[in-house]
Amino acid sequence: MLLEDRLKDYRLILSSASPRRQNFFKGMGFDFVLDIRPVNEVYSDSLKEEEITNYLAKLKATPFDDLKKKDILVTSDTIVWFQGKPLEKAADRDEAIAMLSALSGNYHEVITSICITTTTQQLVMHDKVKVWFDTLSQEQIAYYIDTHKPYDKAGSYGIQEWLGYVAVPRIEGSFFTVMGLPTHLVYKGLSEIVQGKSD
């Protein structure tokens, strides 16, 4: 039986305000409900790379202390990791310009973690992708930021937007992970959870 059919016995909950993640769930054929509960996304400076995204994806599940037996919750987090530091969402235009100026002509990693939670289980998985940028002019950076306002995106860019079309010659890994959700891991993780419940 396909996962999509198995999930009909459950209430699949996506906790994400990202329209991209919501569209991915639709694209995978999932029936789901949105339930977004705010958390204070603070983590220790001692955490590195996927330790950060794993921690935050789990943290986003903590407000859901009222899950029912047939509920499956999916939370996630994405960062850009560059030269030993995380780049998250830019607070303002100047910060976005600084981020893209640093990424220009370099490669970075995009790390996305997912956390799948039920009343009896919690599964955390992550994916890591290398992304290369061509050298960007300040004019290009300003144009992209002013046109697309990427303040809701880690690293201040969306690979599916203008910048991705013109300045990303290569990626090593899943395109969807760079967009904010490793869909192959979501499918794998949900399959494991449902299979475990059915055994």
Question: How are the secondary structure elements laid out?
Answer:
Layout: H1 3-6, E1 11-14, H2 19-27, E2 33-34, H3 50-59, E3 71-82, E4 85-87, H4 93-103, E5 107-117, E6 122-132, H5 138-148, H6 162-167, E7 170-172, H7 175-179, H8 183-198
Parallel strand pairs: 1-2, 1-3
Antiparallel strand pairs: 3-4, 3-5, 5-6, 6-7
Helix pairs in contact: 4-5
The helix fraction, in percent, is 25-40%
What is the oligomer described by this structure?
single chain
Helix tally equals 8
Strand residue content: 15-25%
Largest sheet: 7 strands, mixed
Strand tally is 7
Provide the structure class: alpha/beta
The whole-number mean of residue pLDDT values reads 95
> Which overall shape is indicated by the principal axes computed on the Cα atoms?
elongated
Spans where pLDDT lies below 50 across 5 or more residues: none
Overview of this protein structure:
By secondary structure, the chain is an alpha/beta fold. 36% of the residues lie in helices and 23% in strands. It has helices at residues 3-6, 19-27, 50-59, 93-103, 138-148, 162-167, 175-179, 183-198; strands at 11-14, 33-34, 71-82, 85-87, 107-117, 122-132, 170-172. Strands 1, 2, 3, 4, 5, 6 and 7 form a seven-stranded mixed sheet that branches. A hairpin with a 4-residue loop joins strand 5 (107-117) and strand 6 (122-132). The longest helix is centred in the last third of the chain and has 16 residues, at 183-198. The model has no long low-confidence stretch (mean pLDDT 95).
